[in-house]
UniProtKB/TrEMBL annotation:
It is found in: Cell outer membrane. Pfam families: SusD-like_3, SusD_RagB. GO terms for cellular component: cell outer membrane. Transmembrane segments: none annotated. Residues 1-19 form the signal peptide. Residues 24-221 form the SusD-like N-terminal domain. This is Putative outer membrane starch-binding protein. Residues 266-566 form the RagB/SusD domain. InterPro entries: SusD-like_N, SusD_RagB_dom, TPR-like_helical_dom_sf. Keywords: Cell outer membrane, Membrane, Signal. Belongs to the SusD family.
Length: 591
């Protein structure tokens, strides 16, 4: 009997402990993991927002991820001769974090989140519209991430299965070829084009989000990177025809670079930032920060604006770009208004525009600007020690919102990643590649030129496809998109690094002068044409073959035994492989 009582007591204790375990088996909402999250539509919507958040990091578009491609091109040079120097000279050794690691790291954060969404979404019950919106945005953002990973780093691991992160053998993935990566980009964008609503259909929901138009625009970009002009052209024509929603050029070119005209009719896709002063106070420079008080701005202005006004003064517009603007005047005799919005220079002509609220000078007297605390009577220095012309786009020099530049993640101007003008100029390029110079191609270009009152181009001025390509590549696109992200990618897809005459042209475009002085001995911002005889150097004179791409960071290579360096790590010339597949148009003189 005694033993029976003991046995009953033991059973009671076991039962009590088991019941206690059941009561304590709950999920702490503050310590959720990827295993127990994402099983509802609302939770997946939160992950979509988290994926968008990652394109606003320093390595994606909050600073260096945006400006690295600009300085890789011929429209921007490193006026500080410090921070971006390895990327301006295209000879990074692979040990510089800002370009060799930060964009790589931050874009894989986007890949990780989008892979997570796509691993969960098929198992969650929701309407077809909700499914298409969630999955479509994830596919677009993953394609966006791989587009920048491959155009920056050439051959990177292609990871599309979230489960692969749980196994060390698959997490440490090897390089995929650039063609394999672009095949995946095209596959993702093709689905996103079908799944996402247009900006018109999406209404308020579409403000700041990926739409079918954004996916179509990036599909055309991806196709054109591999010279698939016959496939890209119909997509561009459909965008123009309104198949993916209504897009049009803004009457005022400057509306593409201001806070109060964001997500406008010209924008296919842009990165959303909080207006200046409306975010928190914490600057989240790294992806590990999750502060609820983040500033939620970008630091592109800190690199682009004048050091005389308080910026870091790292990057300046090239004298070539400035003088390209000066070669043509508008039909009313004024300067091309895109110069005003692209570069911060003082022009004598400005005195003739007083009180004229024009597209170029919408604030009345263009000489007055609260940033300068006085009338602008000289071109401010990009860098106080080295000179250079400061860049206006995305800066307060033209927005005129606050009296002093605040460095860091403070600027609230949304970065427009693709605009309708890009669709038109790409359509002209495709038409020229397929059919040679035609009136159709000229008409696409003239739509962009008429916005800024430049005289129409005439078909008779372009005797060959080579001539019209030269006009598109080295006149129309630099003036429309000067100092924006994308020029370096264009130079690669056109093969300009792989032909000696084209490389010589880049060297000429990249000439700069260090610390030029006036007669009084003061450093000035040189706006004269710079030649081989007058230049201090060129951004392209130190170019090493293979370094049109950025090298993979050496620490990443050390950590992943399956990963190899790319052409920049190995200094391998990509010219032979490029010429086997694609055509490089020769340099021709324009009349």
């Amino acid at each position: 009997m005694k033993n029976l009582n003991i046995f009953i007591l033991i059973l009671a204790l076991i039962g009590g402990l088991t019941a206690c375990d059941d009561q304590l088996d709950v999920t702490n909402p503050n310590e959720q993991t990827t295993v127990d999250f994402g099983d509802s539509e609302s939770e997946l919507q939160e992950v979509v927002i988290a994926a968008y958040n990652r394109i606003r990091l320093e390595g994606s578009f909050a600073r260096v991820g945006y400006t690295l491609d600009a300085v890789r091109g011929d429209e921007v040079w490193n006026s500080s001769q410090q921070w971006y120097i390895d990327y301006d000279r295209l000879n990074s050794p692979g040990t510089n974090e800002i370009g060799d690691m930060w964009p790589y790291r931050d874009w894989y954060h986007v890949v990780n989140r989008t892979n997570y969404i796509l691993s969960k979404v098929d198992d969650v019950e929701m309407s077809e519209d909700s499914y298409n919106q969630i999955a479509g945005q994830a596919l677009f953002l993953r394609a966006l991430a791989y587009y920048h990973l491959s155009t920056y780093y050439q051959t990177v691991p292609l990871i599309t299965d979230y489960e692969s992160y749980s196994d060390m053998n698959t997490m440490f993935a090897s390089n995929s070829t650039q063609d394999e990566i672009f095949d995946q980009i095209e596959a993702d964008l093709s689905k996103a084009m079908d799944m996402l609503p247009s900006r018109d259909e999406g209404g308020e929901w579409a403000q700041g989000r990926a739409t079918s138009g954004a996916a179509a625009g990036y599909m055309a970009r991806a196709l054109m990177f591999r010279h698939k002009f016959t496939e890209a052209y119909p997509i561009l024509q459909d965008i123009i025809a309104g198949v993916y929603g209504h897009y049009e050029l803004m009457n005022n070119y400057g509306d593409n670079f201001k806070e109060d005209t964001e997500n406008n009719a010209e924008s296919l896709f842009e990165v959303q930032f909080m207006d200046f002063g409306t975010g928190g106070t914490d600057e989240e420079w790294t992806p590990v920060n999750i502060s609820s008080e983040a500033t939620q701005g970008h630091a592109v202005e800190s690199n682009y604006a004048s050091q005389e006004l308080g910026s870091w003064g790292d990057l300046a517009g090239s004298p070539w770009l400035y003088n390209l603007f000066k070669e043509e005047t508008s039909t009313d005799g004024r300067l091309d208004p895109r110069l005003y919005w692209t570069l911060v220079t003082y022009e004598d002509e400005y005195s003739n525009y007083t009180d004229q609220a024009t597209d170029a000078y919408p604030n009345g007297d263009p000489r007055s600007n609260i940033v300068y605390q006085e009338e602008i009577t000289k071109t401010p220095l990009s860098n106080s020690a080295q000179g250079g012309i400061s860049i206006a786009k995305w800066t307060n020099a033209r927005n005129n919102i606050y009296p002093n530049i605040t460095n860091g993640l403070q600027c609230g101007v949304n970065l427009r990643l693709m605009r309708y003008s890009d669709v038109l100029l790409r359509a002209a390029e495709c038409e020229n590649e397929i059919n040679g110079p035609t009136q159709t191609a000229i008409d696409y270009i003239n739509q962009v030129r008429r916005r800024v009152a430049l005289p129409d181009l005439e078909l008779s001025d372009f005797p060959s496809a080579d001539h019209l390509f030269e006009q598109i590549a080295n006149v129309e696109r630099p003036k429309e998109f000067g100092c924006e992200n994308g020029r370096g990618i264009d130079l690669i897809r056109w093969g300009f690094f792989y032909d000696q005459s084209r490389l010589n042209q880049l060297i000429e475009h990249g000439y700069y002068m260090l610390a030029p002085k006036n007669e009084a001995g003061d450093i000035i911002a040189n706006t004269d044409v710079v030649t081989a005889e007058t230049a201090s150097g060129s951004s392209f004179q130190s170019y090493n073959p293979g370094h049109e791409y950025f090298p993979l960071f050496q620490n990443i290579l050390n950590a992943n035994p399956n990963l190899e360096g790319n052409s920049a790590n190995k200094s391998v010339d990509n010219a032979p492989a490029f010429k086997e597949k694609y055509n490089i148009r020769p340099v021709v003189e324009l009349e």
